Amino acid sequence: MTDRYQSLAHNPIGKFVVNSLGLPNPPVLERWTEGDPLVKGTVLIGSAKGGSLGAKLNATLKASGITTVGVRADDKRYKALVFDATGIADTAGLADMQQFFTPALRSLQSSGRLIVIGALPDQAATETAAIAQRALEGFVRSTGKEVGGNGSTANLVYVGAGAEDALGSTLEFLLSPKSAFVSGQVIRLGLTELVTADAYDPAKPLAGKVALITGASRGLGAAMARTLHRDGASIVGLDVPQLSSELDAVMAELGGTSIAEDITAADAPKVIAKAIKDAHGRVDIVVHNAGITRDKRLKNMKTENWNLVIDISVGAPQRITAELLKQKLLGKGGRVIGISSIAGIAGNNGQTSYGTAKAGVIGFVNDLSKRVAKDGITVNAIAPGFIETDMVKTMPLGIREAGRRLSSVSQGGLPIDVAEAIAWYANPGSSAISGNTVRVCGQALIGA
């Protein structure tokens, strides 16, 4: 759906009005196009005293085809600023970060990227180090709100012991336009047992992989299917029988397999497992995207609607995943990805059932990620914010505009923004990422 306010804000008259009245001014966000480099410009790297990444960070970015420098020049502008904060062992050391970013921010290009890399506070050697590392979250979230006006983002990556070599796919995602609508987020590597990633083609990282996507006939699900197919995956799309014609059209476009099934049916897990086994023999990526809303305030809620919302978002994904694991169709290197929502983090008036369901998705991820880590399977969630889907058209104007403007980038995201985050989780290089819930919300100004 077209954001008419954004278009108005960028014509000469509208720009004058917006600037004069101090109204939100949504920047034009850069998004990645196939064939483009990951980063169109130079990345400036800095480090706190005692940083543990050193040459490894430079080598990781160089291997991804990203140009880096370690010394700032007054006459140069930079597409991204990356700071190794792993050496910060007390609050006094936080000044190293300020002294790097303060002058460098004046040289940041539009749609730029700020990334801070820290050490997991829970693994800190001392209490003072744990406190200082936890402080990085406030720095990144505040900085993200400062730079969002020009389309830039700020994110934090905590690296657990032994996960230093697994930074590549995460840095590629966060530094590139693929993460245009991801800001103010904290990503944790190495929360669970690490699995060594097999070699893969960076241009088609999912080649040879099979991806199951529920709710794949339209909107976010269709965008996910197209994006994972772009990256080389064979797609199995699932949706309810009522949408089978739309699902078949998307799968025909992608050369994929359709499953028309109600995931809440008692036999759905076995039906789905059989269809996957017959078509491909296994599945590597499972995206539990299907979900519905039956919005009512709690005092007006019908039990049957409550149960349906919860079961589609949480109950059915649990049963389907359990069956795939039981039949050993999902094994080492597998990915399970749930779709939560900022409603599951911050809550939303009139969406008690939906918020409960989407918080349940986060609980599902936290629990399952620990149980399957020994099998080399990762489990994560994406929590979208305001995304421009067909549902937006049905919203009252006031709610729609508030949803768009209440973020650091003053606009809604696109389905491709969620799909790119799914592709990042699915990447073979993301094997150290498990148990995470990352918001794709333009740093919405509600919730954590």
Blueprint of the fold:
Elements: H1 4-9, H2 12-21, E1 42-47, H3 55-63, E2 67-69, E3 78-84, H4 94-104, E4 108-119, H5 127-147, E5 153-159, H6 168-175, E6 186-189, E7 210-214, H7 219-230, E8 234-239, H8 244-254, E9 257-260, H9 268-279, E10 285-288, H10 303-326, E11 335-339, H11 343-346, H12 352-372, E12 378-384, H13 397-405, H14 415-426, E13 437-440
Parallel strand pairs: 1-2, 1-3, 3-4, 4-5, 5-6, 7-8, 7-10, 8-9, 10-11, 11-12, 12-13
Describe this structure in words.
It contains 14 helices and 13 strands. It has 448 residues and is an alpha/beta fold. The protein has two domains: 40-189, Rossmann fold (3-Layer(aba) Sandwich); 210-440, Rossmann fold (3-Layer(aba) Sandwich), CATH 3.40.50.720. A seven-stranded parallel sheet has the order 9-8-7-10-11-12-13, sandwiched between helices. Strands 2-1-3-4-5-6 form a six-stranded parallel sheet, with helices on both faces. Helix 7 (219-230) packs parallel to helix 8 (244-254), helix 7 (219-230) packs across helix 14 (415-426) and helix 9 (268-279) packs parallel to helix 10. The relative contact order is 0.12. The mean pLDDT is 93.
In a nutshell, what does this entry contain?
With 448 residues, this protein is of the alpha/beta class. The protein has 14 helices and 13 strands. Helices cover 38% and strands 17% of the residues.
